[in-house]
Structure formats: structure tokens, C-alpha cells
What does this fold into?
Amino acid sequence: RSIVDLFSGCGTFSLPLAETKEVHAVEGEKAMVQAMDAGWRKAEGLKKLTHEARDLYRRPLLVDELKRFDAAVIDPPRAGAEAQVGELAKSGIKTIAYVSCNPVSFARDGAILRDAGYNLAFVQTVDQFRWSSHVELVGAFVKN
It folds into this structure.
């Protein structure tokens, strides 16, 4: 079926994922969505990429909207995505890839998924900001 990319930015994950699956990207910044759309239109061989500009803090995708997806990618700002993760946890999506720049919000949101029956199957730190204390975390949550 398809993948939902939440807090998609300009398509860092959406565009590569569209090489093999249909993707629906959701991002709060309209300019980012427009840039992603332009990139998709110029690329060759990509599957369908739909998108919407939506503030996921004020209006997270709800369970009924998430039911059509097999997997989710979520890459929220430092504050995490507590409300959106709560909806993901209830959605039944089997696999959630969570990219985070804040270990504290990753742990909080990960606990929501754990309590809903997801296991943290993989986690990796990415030290991409040399000479800083900031790290990225990438985790794969899988529903039992």
C-alpha cells in the first residue's frame, strides 16, 4: 500500500521512499511542501507522492486517516510529537521509523508507542554535528 511521512520537510525521506512505495507527506511549512512537489515532478521513476501542508501539532493525523498506511516515518522538531505519536499508537500501523534530534522527546514518544504494544526493534545514534553535544536518533518501532 503506502507510507506516511510526518513532519516531512522538503522530502528528505519522502522522495527516496517514493522509489518503491506510494508516499503521503505531511509538513507544516507550505514552502517545504512546494519544494518537495517540485522535486518530485522533476524526478524520474518515482511512484505517486501526495502531500499536504498541515500543522501536526494543532491537527495531528487521526486514526481514521492513518489506517490506509502500512508504515510511517516521523521526524519531528526537538519538542517531539506527543499528540501525533498518540494517534500513531492507536492506528495499528505495523512499522514506525522515528527520527529525532532530542533524546528526551524520543524517550517520551517512544514510551507512548511501547505502551501501545510496539517494540523498539532498532535504535542508532547519528553524530552528524561535529563539535556539538547534539545527536540524532533513528529508531524502528514494530507492532507485535
